[in-house]
UniProtKB/TrEMBL annotation:
Pfam families per UniProt: PPR, PPR_2
Keyword Repeat: yes
Family note: Belongs to the PPR family. P subfamily.
Protein name stated in the entry: Pentatricopeptide repeat-containing protein
Entry keywords, A to Z: Repeat
InterPro entries listed in its UniProt record: PPR_rpt, TPR-like_helical_dom_sf
PPR repeat ranges per the UniProt record: 15-49, 52-86, 87-121
Origin superkingdom: Eukaryota
Length: 177
């Protein structure tokens, strides 16, 4: 924050894009208190310009990376209060957290919410992981077939999900013998 104080003493104030970058960086570093303080300053001063969703997503991602679900939910509530619509990135941040935390019900709620956006390889990879982690291997393989049928290019996320799925299937089969 000394950087902001120094800029202020020079009579300069960062533009909204600079604030977004600062909040994203602080959140990525796990310095969520500082990111939140900057976020509050931006909201109070009305500096968010055309970037309000990026501010919210940066803070939301930072909180969820640190496992601070209550604070993340507070960000979502504030978005709703300010009529800031979630975008695909917002949903991907939530989906990544819920799948990683093993929160099946919330994961499916986010997946259903994401159906209004074109589903990406990130989302398909997470769906495969949800099925895989809950022992629904046939459904996971069905998703792999669906990906092939729609012609979605395979990327690292999907390949990793498929590899992990096949390993689980083989391990499960070997354990039964």
């Amino acid at each position: 924050m000394s950087l902001l104080a120094e800029l202020d003493s020079l009579g300069s104030q960062p533009d909204p894009r600079s604030y977004v970058t600062l909040i994203e960086t602080l959140s990525a570093l796990g310095r969520t208190l500082e990111a939140d303080a900057l976020f509050q300053e931006v909201i109070r001063s009305g500096l968010h310009g055309s970037y309000p969703l990026r501010f919210y997503n940066a803070l939301l991602g930072g909180y969820l990376r640190k496992g601070q679900l209550e604070l993340a939910l507070r960000v979502l509530d504030h978005m709703e209060l300010e009529n800031v619509e979630k975008n695909q990135e917002t949903c991907e941040i939530l989906l990544n957290y819920f799948v990683g935390a093993g929160r099946l019900e919330e994961s499916w709620r986010v997946v259903n919410e994401m159906k209004k956006f074109p589903l990406t390889s990130f989302v398909y990879g997470k769906i495969i992981r949800i099925y895989r982690d809950n022992g629904m291997w046939k459904k996971a393989l069905g998703i792999v077939e669906e990906i092939s049928e729609i012609g979605l290019p395979m990327d690292v996320e999907i390949y990793n999900s498929i590899i992990e799925l096949r390993i689980r299937i083989v391990n499960n089969f070997c354990c039964r013998i």
